[in-house]
Design a protein that fits this description.
With about 190 residues, the chain is α/β, with parallel strands linked by helices. It has one domain: Flavodoxin domain (Rossmann fold, 3-Layer(aba) Sandwich). It is about 40% helix and about 20% strand. The chain has seven helices and five strands; from the N terminus they run E-H-E-H-H-E-H-H-E-H-E-H.
């Protein structure tokens, strides 16, 4: 028997009861039922410094900040599938998740300027919710850029709009759709 798939979930939800976090939980539960190893981080609970854009990493290939980004990096590099779940704030990602993405400049430098070999290809899934009208395109572009620096293929997505207005029954149907998506992924 081969090793278990490792799944790393990143939540940008504002609370454990947020709809984006509940959809991530449904996805990770489905992966767990399939026998996968699960790790999860909520960005609201981690310490991340903002990239200062001074480009010191372009010479050294090392970020000057020592914080929880190294934990995220370790989990990303050791996982087979990365699942990011996020609400949409003003057509984009919440600030703390965007700070994580911005901190990936050092990985872009390593890959593109210093020509270091990257990690083995991985799969990425993006789950997102919007309180009102659907506008996921800006956030998707940012997530694709994040995935790219880690050699993660943007392979699946689930978007749920109008969460400010949908009923609990409609949300439960969305949970079912996320579970169905994950069942397809682990086939």
């Amino acid at each position: 028997m081969g090793r278990k798939l490792k799944i790393f979930g990143i939540s940008a939800g504002p609370s454990p009861a947020s709809r984006s976090e509940l959809l991530l939980k449904a996805a990770l539960d489905e992966f767990s039922k399939a026998g996968c190893e699960i790790e999860k981080v909520a960005v609201r609970d981690i310490n991340i410094s903002f990239c200062d854009g001074l480009r010191g990493c372009e010479k050294s290939g090392i970020c000057k900040w020592k914080d929880d980004m190294q934990i995220l990096e370790g989990n990303i590099l050791s996982s087979d599938i990365i699942v990011i779940s996020s609400p949409i704030y003003f057509t984009s990602l919440p600030a703390k998740l965007k700070a994580v993405v911005d901190r990936c400049q050092v990985y872009w430098v390593q890959k593109n300027l210093l020509k270091k070999s990257g990690p083995e290809p991985k799969r990425g899934i993006f789950i997102s919710v919007a309180g009102r009208e659907p506008d996921f395109k800006h956030a998707e572009i940012i997530i694709k850029a994040f995935f790219n620096v880690f050699n993660i293929n943007f392979s699946d997505k689930f978007y749920l709009s109008n969460t400010d207005y949908i009923s609990n029954k409609q949300f439960e149907e969305a949970v079912g759709s996320v579970k169905k998506l994950i069942k397809e992924v682990v086939k």
